[in-house]
Design brief:
By secondary structure, the protein is of the alpha+beta class. Helix content is 32%, strand content 22%.
Length: 390
């Protein structure tokens, strides 16, 4: 087994076998599902270190602002476990980075499933997690940005809102129907003075698929969700650095624009190449404007095409005990050309993998810090379950 330095400095063969190409294709799909965009993924990426006068080559790298965020070495056949090494703290001498770059070996198991083996020491405890997170955040502190977090108990979980998940029994094709059926069956829960965004938040609370994705400003909350359940799978904490000027509040006009897409039929589409006047005169945009004006009578008859193609970071009202306890916020997804295709995140994600075997240990540590199921889900039935299971 070559060490990481040999792996990175070794030259790639001019051609790859079929298995390696298959791994790269599955790896790219995995990363796109995590929220990375295609232009961030680079095969055969070469990093030129001006300080050491050497070049490092990777089979695949996630790149942002010219520097690698994650790196991957592809193995057609791989059976031996990786010997963990701290040599994955690459580029530490480069002033422009000041960060760890997670390194992984990617291969297929006997069932043909993509496996990512971290080259880093495992996250075994809360203190390990905090130390790793600190390396990312400490040297990138900026008063103009805020970090948001999300935890998955299975690192294979895709980063998508529920309405766009293929596994959902009802998805984007039925969004407008589910929205209206929820209000029809539970009118008292959705009064007329409640905005569309606020209604989506409540629907999300009760597990209806929406175009919202839950995030939090508290990394410990994300760590709890990364460790809860799926005991045999690695978890992950994903986090984003969002510019303060890009963060919207619950009553923003742009939030109303995107939220009201939920009321539009599944064949809703847009043509961003049209002039602003022609764009706003189209039947679909006129229909959307009608829905927006149901909650905002003052809204002007003008929607910018680019606003429909955004993913907004939204701070909701903290009028829900669960949202308040979880320091909750949301990504609100617009569309790309048509309603069946979600907009793409412009905030590059970062990931910290939590090894499955240490999840329960970390949960016990979080409980000592007051982060438990009962504290994050303060409804009375969850509190009673927590008391019973003590």
């Amino acid at each position: 087994m070559r060490d990481l330095k040999d792996v990175l400095e070794g030259h790639m063969a001019d051609s790859r076998n079929t298995t390696e190409n298959e791994i790269l294709q599955k790896l790219e799909k995995f990363l796109l599902d995590k929220g990375y965009t295609q232009n961030m993924l680079m095969r055969d990426y070469e990093f030129d270190s001006n300080k050491s006068n050497s070049k490092l080559k990777f089979d695949l790298a996630v790149v942002e602002n010219g520097a690698p965020v994650e790196i991957y070495e592809v193995k057609a056949f791989y059976t031996k476990p990786v010997k963990y090494t701290r040599s994955y703290q690459l580029f530490k001498s480069l002033d422009q980075l000041h960060t760890r770059v997670p390194a992984f070996i990617a291969y297929l198991n006997q069932a043909g499933k993509l496996v990512l083996q971290s080259m880093a020491p495992p996250i075994k405890s809360f203190s390990d997690f905090y130390a790793t997170l600190d390396v990312y955040v400490k040297y990138q502190m900026d008063d103009n940005y805020v970090y948001f977090y999300r935890g998955h108990n299975d690192e294979q979980y895709s980063f998508q809102p529920g309405i766009y998940r293929q596994s959902a029994s009802r998805n984007i094709s039925d969004e407008d129907i589910m929205y209206r059926e929820a209000i029809r069956h539970c009118p008292a829960e959705f009064p007329e003075n409640m905005s569309c965004f606020e209604k989506l938040v409540k629907m999300q609370h009760y597990a209806l698929p929406t175009r919202l994705l839950d995030i939090t400003t508290n990394p410990l909350v994300a760590l709890y969700f990364a460790c809860s359940g799926a005991d045999n799978a690695n978890g992950e904490v994903i986090f984003f650095k969002v510019k303060k000027s890009d963060i919207k509040y619950f009553d923003s006009d742009t939030v109303s624009i995107i939220a009201n897409i939920a009321k539009c039929k599944c064949d809703f589409d847009i043509d961003s190449s049209l002039s602003i006047q022609t764009f706003n005169a189209t039947a679909n945009v006129q229909s959307l404007l009608h829905e927006i004006k149901q909650e905002k009578t003052h809204f002007k008859d003008c929607i910018k095409p680019e606003d429909l193609g955004r993913v907004l970071c939204v701070l909701p009202k903290l009028n829900n005990p669960r949202i308040a306890k979880q320091s909750g916020a949301f990504f609100l997804y617009g569309i790309t050309k048509n309603k069946r295709n979600p907009a793409k995140l412009q905030h590059a994600p970062r990931r910290i993998v939590i090894n499955a075997e240490y999840k329960k240990i970390i949960l016990r540590e979080l409980a000592n810090l007051g982060i438990t199921n009962a504290s994050l889900f303060p409804e009375i039935d969850n509190i009673m379950k927590s008391i019973k299971n003590k």
